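User: Hi! Is it possible to get a structure for several chains at once, not just one? Here's what I have:
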Amino acid sequence: MSELRCPMCGNPNLEDAQLCRVCQAQLKPILGAQGSDSNGGESNEVDWLSGLRDGIESQSESPAGEGRWENDAFEKEVPDWLARIRQRARMEEEANPKDSFSTRDDLSLTGDENPDWLKEIQSGSESARREERSDAWLDLPEGSTDEGSKTVAGGEDDSSLKAAEAPPAQGDDIPDWLNGGEEEQPSDEAAGLGEEADLPFWLKALEGESAQAPPGWQPPGEQEELPDWVHTAEAGDREAEETVTAREEGEVPAWVGAFSVAEEETREETATDEEVETAEMSAFLPGETEREERIGAPAAFTIPIEELASEPEADKAPPPFVEEPIEGEAFVSASPFTEGSLFEWLDELASEPILEKNTSGAAPFSSEAEQEPTPAGEKIGYPFSGDDLPDWLSDVALAETSEYPLRGHEQPSSTGEAELQPSELPGWLEAIRPLEAVAPEAETEGGEETVASDGPLAGLPGILAPLTQAVGYSKPPGYSARLRLTEKQRAHADLLEKMLADETQPRQARLELIKDPQRLLRLMVGVILIAVLIFSASLTVGTTGLYAPLELFNFNNQIEAIPDGAPVLLAFEYQPGYSAEMQRIATGMLNRLMAKNTRLTLVSTVPAGPILAEQLIVEAAARLAREGGTVNPGYAAGEMIVNLGYLPGGIASLQEFSLRPQQASRYGLTSALDGTQAWTHPALAGVGDLRDFSAVVVVADSLESGRAWLEQVQPALGETPLLVVASAQAAPLLVPYLASGQVSGMIAGVTSGMVYQEISQTPLETGFLNAYRSGMLLAVLLILVGIIIHSVSLLFAARKSSSG
Amino acid sequence: MRAPLAAAIAIAVGSIVLAGYFFPLQLLKDVQALLIGWGVILTGVAALVGIFNLVGVHWRKMSAPTESDVYSPLLILAFLVTFVAGLILTPAGAQFQKVVTFIQAPVEMSMLALLAISLAYACLRLLQRRKTTLSLVFLISALVFLIIGSGYLSALYQIAGLSDLYGLLTRLPLAGSRGILIGIGLGSLTAGLRILMGFDRPYSG
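Assistant: Yes, the chains can be modeled jointly so their relative placement is included. Here is the combined structure:
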């Protein structure tokens, strides 16, 4: 059982089916029935296709530059329905090579699947050729660039003009509204506008004529692949999908926006059917369905015709039947939307000739009544109207004839009234409109029009210019890590590098003198010093031969001024280490005080001071007893000397001692032994305060100890003189107090002590003095030797450097 | 403010003691003497605390598990012997005084004797260690005053014309010592004022 394939969706249907079971499209074209019924018969049908084809060719044969652009546009604007059909044809060919039905076959409606209207015009044996040639018109746009196209387009503008201006021939059923694009007819054929001359060669073949295909024409069956314009259109679709969608969404023109509501309504109403159809189509043509979804536009192709026929008011769009040829022509139209006129492409397709024909003659597929001349500017009736239309389309067509005529027919009207606004573009037409209809506007908004120089869009104007932004992000400049140095800088760098290298190198340790010679030298110095001291100490001299300074004379005078038996306070403020020196200095003073039978009170702020004082007193008494002199033999040390001991607290204790001496030193050194109070000792009889002492003698080995007495105690002494016996190191610092009068007299150092001994006529320790002076002289010699050695070394170094 | 009570007490005590020097009021002097007496007692107690702290430190050094100090036991032993001998013999005992006269004094004098030898050796190598102008000036000044201090040039004092030079040389240390004493006095005054004003609080820990 033979089956009839739907020209829209390609699904097989029963042979006697009128509508497609899937898409509800009319399986048997109206043209078939009309052709049989019309005047022209098959010529009417042929004329209609011829006119359609001529329109396409006329668009393709527009002036050189424009025509090229149109071809590009045609290649870009492959309608989805055509791409779908071709894809399905390829799939069928692959599945059943023997049954080499293609989309072109479906379109040509040949063979068993030919509709009746074509079967009637078939002349028997020409079916195969008709298949090819009926499909050839689809290839014509592609062939417009080849030789065949040139042959057909020999007349170009002239032919189209002639064809448009030429009156329709008798019996010529080519619709005038389609005849305007008849530019591809040769000039001679166009001039005659005969029935046969208007037919393309493939239609001529259908009629049995021995039409010869143009040189560039290629039978569809021989084509292994889709035409280039299809590929180009597909590629363009894919590349422009996003752009179109974005522009439709965001930059929809006003004339499009007016249709958005109606389109949405239509889509909603046909959603269910669309889903069913889409599902079926997806199963069959998944790629195509996907493309449709991406584009999101061709919903009009899926709208069932019944729904369109039943809802013409809501849709306000031509039926898909009319839509397809228009769409096919849009491929070759010269930028139909660029000038803001929606149907300029239709104008160029049909334009004035069609209008003139319509106005002058009958509509190609209309009844006699409808073929009455129509005044200019009056709405042109739908070309497929009246009895020529099938039942399913008649309602739609009749309804639209009065209210929605083809807009292209109105435009050339003389009055210019009833012009449709661009915003009235239906949604389905908006979806399939060429990209050029929108792209140039967007580009002109940007102020520039970019022409692709390479890639699949090479030569196409109005494409997006992604490089304009990419140019802003230029490749960052590369900087060489290599420094450019001048000679001077390089020299400095080398010098710095050398310096750093020297710093990093470990220094050669200087050869120090080995420790043995140092130890030997130190030992030698010690041995020499000791030898000299011992030798000098063994020497005895009669006199010191020293000059007595003024302070020493004052000290002696103060001691001699002390009455006999008077209390004298002795402060021993020196460390045990200085006891040898201090003993030699203080012995003469102690001997003199003992000789004067003074009562001595010993006190110290140094812990070892009281013991050192005891020792000094004992040694002084023993020395005087041993060496004779002016010692008082009746001097009872136990009764005449009292040791108050140690005053804790340092300077604070001296302050307390100066204020309240009895409270500060309540217990003496011997109190623990004999249990007596210090201030009840006979040596302190009649002494309650420091002012009661005849003299205060401070024996100090340091500045601090002597200064504490001078600053804390001396103000509390009143008229009591304060005498100082200082070591050699403390004497220079205590001299200022002597000059200020705070100190009445002072023995400064060993030499002064020896002088005082000599003055006081006490036994002179000449051996100690000789050792002391010899030691100092040796130190002077060592310093001189050191200076000489250093000077000689410097001299040799200077000579060595000068010679080297 | 850290330790405000301690600062107040320190400032008050210092002010009272300082006022005792300038205002001859008996009450003020009595208070001053009382406060100084307390201070002396506290100083003695602090000396005892310091002694026990010293013993404790050396005890820890001695009892340390590693690297114990070998001299710490000697110090502790000497301390205990001296402390016990002092308690028994009392500081006035002739036997106890030998601790100082036969041990402490010779040890300290030996140290000074070694110092004398070291100084003599340093004088010999001073210019080899430091080749500076100040080193040379120091050596020359030391040389001059060693000669003057030895007394060998005292005869110059009797020579007309040189006596002034000798007197000038002997008075040179006086100028330096005055400067030192003035500096010490100013420093002590400043430190006392800062403590009285509370800027320095060494007692606050």
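Strands of chain A lie at 3-5, 12-14, 567-573, 599-604, 641-646, 695-700, 722-726, 745-748. The mean pLDDT of chain A is 66.

User: Great, thank you!
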